[in-house]
Amino acid sequence: MAIAAAVQASSLKGAGRLNLGPLGLLAAPMAWMSFFYLAPLALLLVHAFWSVDYLTIDRTFTLANIQTVIDNPLYRTVLVRTFLIAAAVTLTDIVLAFPIAFYIAKRVTRHRELLLMLVVFPLWSSYLVRAFAWKTILGTNGILNSFLLTTGIVNEPVSAFLYSKTGMYITFCQVWLPFMILPLFTILDRMPSSLLEAASDLGGNWWQTFRRIILPLSLPGLLAGSLSVFSLTMGDYITPSLIGGSPGTELIGGIIADQFGIANNWPLGAALILPVLAIVSVFLLLANRAGALGRGEPG
Amino acid sequence: MNQPREDRIEFLIELEPAQVMAQYRSGQVTRRDLSKLFAALGLTAALGPTIGRSPALAQSNELTMIVWEGYSSDSLRIPWEEANDATVEATFASTGDEMFAAMQGSGGTTYDMVSASSDLPQRLYDAGLLMEIDPTKLTNYPDLYEQFQKPPYITFDEKLFGVNFAWGPTILLYNPDEIAEAPTSWNALLDEQYSGRITTWNYPLQIGQYALLLDPKPEDPFLLDDEQLAQVKDLLVQQRPLIRKYWDLGGEVAELFQNGEVVIGDGWSWITLQIQGSNGSIAEASPEEGVTGWSDSWCISSEAANPELALKWADYMIGPEGQMGVIENLNYSITNSKVVETLPTEVREQLRMTDVPAEYAKIHMWKFIPNYDKWVQVWQEATAS
User: Fold this and answer.
1) Which residues of B touch A77 (CB under 8 A)?
2) Are residues B96 and B244 in the same domain?
3) What is the pTM of this model?
4) Checking DSSP bridges between strand B87-92 and strand B62-67, what pairing results, if any?
5) ipTM of the complex
């Protein structure tokens, strides 16, 4: 999504020159999306109102699954946990990505492509590989603990890095970081440097410049990045299995995956998707209003 | 091989793909011929392995299977592949449920075979995903102990739907460097002195193992009423804070022990072999409350592209080579009486095969669980919240 937003943003200038109408341009992708994405998704969600009888799906309308999702404290606990982790990861990635994106966009004149390449580079390897790499770093006898032990910062290895929420948080922050940096970079790159110079000429300090110029102007990029990082974390179930897996680390993605893969209960799995979809949709609507998807007034 | 080029391609098309590949390997067919052949057969054939199964190639020499880890290890697979000029494409599953989901999700077309444990075939059969097996086509079948020829978990409507080839218990694994005395009870997995260093398999079926700790002990730990399930749930909730990691794949258990993350857990003998193989410290213990276990059969998908080849694999796995491979690679017990008789006494003792029927009966074998949805619910609520 972030990439789409970035591409859309950067191609705005050239779009007017093509003479194809918007319908003509969109027909193929729309057809593709409807057929291969929206239709299956709708079919899946309809399952939420059906029920399962041993091996067959009973297609009589029922609200029982929705009731289960609301009533069972397990799902509430896990949903809240997932939301909090996703929010924490998003905020952290904003803080981490901003200086990097700003530096590449505004301070670097040579080798910018190289730096951008380094940002994208981790995405070339499988997500699974990156999660595994974190296992070797965070383990009880891992790289991080060896470092802490040899430097005398701790006397005993810290076991809380791996198979914990801390470990999941660290992993998520790293693996999704490029999705925050890229849209931020795109928007900061387009921001006229003269604005910053003007702020400085008028006696604004760095904080005033950041708060009143940079932040408002980069809001669309910030939201686009947040949207990606947030929804990627909300739906993930690989990291919880590899880096989590201890009590109290299961996220909603894992619970949903288990409904399909273990319990063979598609209806309940589909019902569990609804709250996740609702949360992400609300975020999407808010972001859209704030202009993250290119309709606002970016600079 | 003096035919003109174009003729040769046509000649090759007529051949079985396995024969073409054999000629290619022996140098009679060049890479260029091969690409021309693929072009002639159409792009799909060339891309078969990546974009899906192309009937032309898959039909005769590729066998796809979804298996427990270890059942497709190189030393088992490669000799058979070479003897049959076939390839085995195996996917690991970490639970029987996963195998079921994979089979059902594709209507049985993705995998020709599944290494189903005793709890699974009933479900596969009910979903219409299994193909009947004609035992007269299996040369090694008469050598199986009688109890493995038509066991109830693979016999439906008096017809055979699996080839039973291996069995064994789920046992306690512990690190003898850290735990001097062998634990004698499953209670060791709930012992606070190992807090934060315990692992257990992340699978609802494990409720059966913990049910062995109930008092009174259920007659069959896989047939539990709601009250007994609630009691097991209490045990699992009590265990929760002590768990380092709920393990998913067997390879993970080895990793957990070797990286010093855990000192005790449940698992299977091949995990022991794996840890010993890399010089790690590991020991097995068989708790006095008894053990749960599994009896694995090769089942063939009702939509299998090549049932004949699947039968050959099943036959191989209950024959001397396959059975010895199961012992050497996995330390599992086997089902072929002739092969058991050739084993040295210590191996027979170690693998519970001095008197197979009696020792087999001592294990609570996984079985089809009628109220399984409740088991899943209990397991999730106890472990995930």
Assistant:
1) 385
2) no
3) 0.82
4) parallel
5) 0.82
